[in-house]
Amino acid sequence: MRTKKYPSDTSREQFEIIKPMLESARKKTKPRTVDLYEVWCAVLYLLRTGCQCRALPSDLPKWRTVHSYFAKWSLPDDQGVSLLEQALLKSQKYRRQMGV
């Protein structure tokens, strides 16, 4: 668990709202070795800063792991909407409801 917080981070409480959605993108073949919350925060960091995956801060998950999840979450579904877009919209709605 990292100690540094970034402006792009979300709360664990907010993450729990979208966690089932993000977990559905991966087939359950073996136990996950990385904290999905940390991967989500790394993806948000990428989106907010516009940096390259290889330039992620070292306290976030490995860039290859983040890139892999980002690629899976970015694939469009039958309606042309990615899981990443759906999760961001759901997260945004939650923040509006909570007044954050």
Overall description:
This protein has 100 residues and is mostly helical. Helix content is 54%, strand content 0%. It contains 4 helices and no strands. Helix 1 (12-23) packs antiparallel against helix 4 (83-98) and helix 2 (36-49) packs across helix 3 (63-74). The longest helix has 16 residues, at 83-98. 16% of the residues are buried.
First and last CA, distance? 24 Å
Rounded average pLDDT: 90
Oligomer: single chain
Largest sheet composition: none
Any idea what the shape is? globular
Category from helices, strands and their pairing: mainly alpha
Count of strand segments: 0
Strand content: under 5%
Task: Give structural attributes.
4 helices; 100 residues
Q: How would you briefly describe this protein structure?
A:
The protein is mainly α and 100 residues long. The chain has helices at residues 12-23, 36-49, 63-74, 83-98.
Protein topology:
Blueprint: H1 12-23, H2 36-49, H3 63-74, H4 83-98
